[in-house]
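User: I'm preparing a small set of examples for a lab meeting where we compare how different chains pack in three dimensions. I only have the primary sequence for this one, and I'd like the structure in token form so I can line it up with the others. Please keep the answer compact; I'll paste it straight into my notes.
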Amino acid sequence: MSDLPPDRLLSPDGTSGWFAFMPDGSRIPDSDDPWQPPPDGTVIRLMGEDTVPVPLWDQDGLMFGEPEELVRELGVSVALARDLQEWADRWHTESRQRQHDADAQALLGRLRAELGERWVFVYKR
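Assistant: Understood. Below is the structure token output for the 125-residue chain.
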């Protein structure tokens, strides 16, 4: 029982969990191949989580560790990446849930406008 599964990592505070990124923020290398975007038609969820700066998740988990990766890898605007990060920062402290939900819907609209119909963007509270 002392051996952890190879894809199980320890978080910075010493607790264990399943992470899409290493505790230092780097990606877990699956192979030498460069990162590939999810296949067309993939559902990408906008979903808040503590300490997650870019709250976009696909079937494999958290997609990006930093807003700059979102800009570089998917080509979204810097403004949209910044607004997603600000939404994520407010996620756990937002006292006006209706406004937070409305902001999430607006962000989904902007993602669809900038990235087209390639992926399906949904909000999960």
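A couple of notes for your slides: The chain has a mean pLDDT of 80. The CA atoms of residues 62 and 93 lie 21 Å apart.

User: Perfect, thanks.
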